Amino acid sequence: MGRQRSIDRDKVLDMAEEIVANQGAAGLTIDSVAKAMGISKGGVQYCFGSKDALIDAMFERWGKAYDTVFDAIAGENPSATTAVQAHMQATRSSDQASSAKAAGLMATLIQTPEHLDSTREWYRSRIAGLDLTTEEGRRARLAFLATEGAFMLRFFGLMDIGQQEWDAMFADMQALVLAQSQTPIADPASK
Questions:
Q1: Which terminus of the chain has a smaller tally of CB atoms within 10 A, N or C?
Q2: Using CA atoms, how far apart are residues 80 and 139, in angstroms rounded to an integer?
Q3: What distance lies between CA 57 and its chain's CA centroid?
Q4: Cα separation of 187 and 191, whole Å?
Q5: How far is CA 48 from CA 41, 45, 61, 108, 150, in A?
Q6: How far apart are CA 63 and CA 41, in angstroms?
Q7: ∠ CA(191), CA(127), CA(130), 5° rounding?
Q8: How many CB atoms are located within 10 Å of the residue 7 CB?
Q9: What does pTM read for this prediction?
Q10: pLDDT in tens for each of the 191 residues of the chain?
């Protein structure tokens, strides 16, 4: 009897992300991932247990990638305003393929109440520390909302935004929405 073939979790996640990017959230099933990978449904279930666990793993993977970029920009213990600026720059500098996957994943996540709740908590936490009694805090909140609006328009395919326009939008947000007295955070892509 031959050695049992092992299944690479990362390759299964890659395929799941590809399915979401190409077919949308509705196309993601244990069966569709298994067929695309050329493995049994049981093989996918062995790796993840259920579709929800697969989605959780996809979200965790994307979150870690985002956090790595965010942390590199924001540094340790950033102020709430610096965190918003870092979020803007992390969103601006993420490559199109990663952002498209993230958008597809978001569409998948909000289909279930528990995923929707965790997404809501994440968004709320991004602006929770802002002092909205100050102009700086209100500007930072507006920058966050503008960033998310641009992200959703571009990566849900609601507006065709090329890279040049994308970069110009973020330059405008930096200049117009955030107080000019703030020191802008460097774009990691320019390093």
A1: N
A2: 12
A3: 13
A4: 7
A5: 11, 5, 13, 16, 33
A6: 26
A7: 100
A8: 14
A9: 0.75
A10: 444 457 889 999 999 988 887 887 778 899 999 999 999 999 999 899 898 888 888 888 888 888 898 999 999 999 998 999 999 988 888 776 667 667 767 776 667 777 788 888 989 999 999 999 999 899 999 999 999 999 988 887 888 999 899 999 999 998 877 755 455 555 545 44
DSSP of the chain: -PPPPP--HHHHHHHHHHHHHHH-GGG--HHHHHHHHTS-HHHHHHHHSSHHHHHHHHHHHHHHHHHHHHHHHH-SS--HHHHHHHHHHHHHHS-HHHHHHHHHHHHHHTTSHHHHHHHHHHHHHHHTT--TTSHHHHHHHHHHHHHHHHHHHHHTTSS---HHHHHHHHHHIIIIIS-TTSPPPPPGGG-
CA–CA separation, 132 and 158 (whole Å): 30
